Amino acid sequence: MTEIEIGRGKSARQAYSFDDISVAPSRRTRDAEDVSMSWKIDAYTFSHPIVSAPMDSVASPESVIALAGLGGLSVLDLEGLWTRYEDPTQAYEHIFASTKADANKVLQRLYAEPIKPELVAARVRQLRDAGITVAGALSPQLTLKFHKTLVDAGVDIFVIRGTTLSAEHVSSRGEVLNLKELIYELDVPVIAGGVATYKAALHLMRAGAAGVLVGFGGGATHTSADVLGLKVPMATAVADVAAARREYLDESGGRYVHVIADGAMGRSGDIVKALACGADAVMVGSPLARAADAPGRGRHWGREAAHRDLPRGHIADFGVVGTLAEIMTGPSRTADGTMNLVGAVQTSIAKCGYNNLKDFQKVEIILN
Q1: What is the pLDDT of residues 150-202, one digit of tens each?
Q2: In 3D, which of 69, 54, 193, 192 has the Cα closest to residue 124?
Q3: How many CA atoms lie within 13 A of 231 on its CB side?
């Protein structure tokens, strides 16, 4: 791999974002109706690869149930507003009324309300009673505290989602999260991330993760690059982690770990590029935040914006383009890639001549 010297004492390699690449159609095309969009993780099969992000602007119990009804995996944030407040309506109103200048202070105050274990269990049961595949998310910091509550309440898929995540966190302060030990104890599949490098992903796979989140999540709202200096362009990150998946598949004698791109996918074309780089599925937030029936009503934020000591995000105002159903499955009334995400991805795969998601990972990619 070519490295570039950026100074006498340091070298770096070139990395690429989704904006830097395009997907090249081949000599063959297909009817879009002939393209299978289904994907499977553990025992659970979904009709398309778009996963809704566990963000309070996107995911309420009602919207999670609605999105699951549209064929995808939908994830509820179990340390967000819905597990801090019995009825978070007033909390949302405070967020809607906040200005750019005071938004972080408002979020810090609202998210300072303690998480209530009984609400964590109640939200999981609410989703289970709706008959959907129940996926709940915790940050790495609170996984040890609440993971038993989730599993006991009946979660089907456990998502551990952080800005950055390692298989083993080292600390001199008390009990720490060892993912390998935790996953071994749990009786449900675990999706964990974010990671952005080959080695970090390989460690999570060896720890037993069923899926690995690639990226830092909340790409449209987080400011980790500004605050912490952390950023890896997503096209390179997804391709690197897909390579780790291939190595681990050989190393483990056939255990396949799903790669889920998480971040920098604001439009359907970005989703196509993530799949072309090797992702099995994508986790999106900002496209769904544009829905009239999303809890954020066009505003979008991540939990990192509410950090009590070091906020690393902001509230973005995207406005509304349609309903959740229209954004996911159409019909679209715009030509900018913000509506009918599933239809756009299916059409792109068909125009490149492939008939399923896995084969589409072989598609030719060019640098712009």
Answers
A1: 999 999 999 999 866 655 555 555 567 788 899 999 989 999 998 999 999 99
A2: 54
A3: 17
Tell me the residue type at 27.
R
- The pair of structure tokens assigned to 78 is 């179990």
The amino acid that residue 319 corresponds to is: G
Percent of residues, the chain, with pLDDT higher than 90: 80
Cα 151 to Cα 149: distance, rounded to the nearest angstrom: 6
Residue 330 burial by Cβ neighbours in a 10 Å radius (0-12, 13-18, 19+): middle
**Cβ within 8 Å of residue 59, ≥6 positions away:** 52, 53, 74, 75, 76, 77, 80, 295
Nearest to 299 by CA among 313, 284, 316, 312: 316
Task: Note the residue count of the chain.
Answer: 368
Residue 287 tokens, joined = 């496209």
Neighbours of 180 (CB within 10 A): 15
Beta bridge partners of residue 77, listed in sequence order: 137
- Rounded (5°) CA angle 232-193-96: 85
Q: Give the orientation angle of helix 61-69 with respect to helix 117-129, to 10 degrees.
A: 30
Yes or no: say if 95 and 80 are a contact pair by the CB < 8 Å rule: no
User: What's the mean pLDDT in 198-221?
Assistant: 87
* Count of domains observed in the chain: 1
Q: Which range of residues forms the domain containing residue 10?
A: 3-367
Report CA torsion sign: 159, 263, 132, 128: positive
CATH classification at residue 259: 3.20.20.70
pTM for the predicted model, two decimal places = 0.95
